[in-house]
Amino acid sequence: HNLLQMVDNAELQNHEPPIAGTIVNSRVEDDGTVQFALQFHGTPELTWVTRDKLRLPNRTLVKIIGLRTKPALNGSTATIDSWDDAAGRYIVWRSATEKIKLR
User: How many whole angstroms separate alpha carbon 103 and alpha carbon 83?
Assistant: First the structure.
């Protein structure tokens, strides 16, 4: 996972009705699976979910972390433009002229 959410509006996918919460923690399991702890609005409990179950909304401010191919970008911020289903990545704006795809 290369994006760390900085606002409180992640949505749990394939859930009816849609629910939103705040990502408050993350962990990597022994098998390499990344999980996020979601705290849903108005509840104290945490729900651990895998990355494929979450979608961050467009215009969400994020921090870039864990990039191996472009480590100089780690720690910088970006804004989500959209989700690319085919690539399984977010398209983010790092600046007014630089758009990149990240997991």
Answer: 10
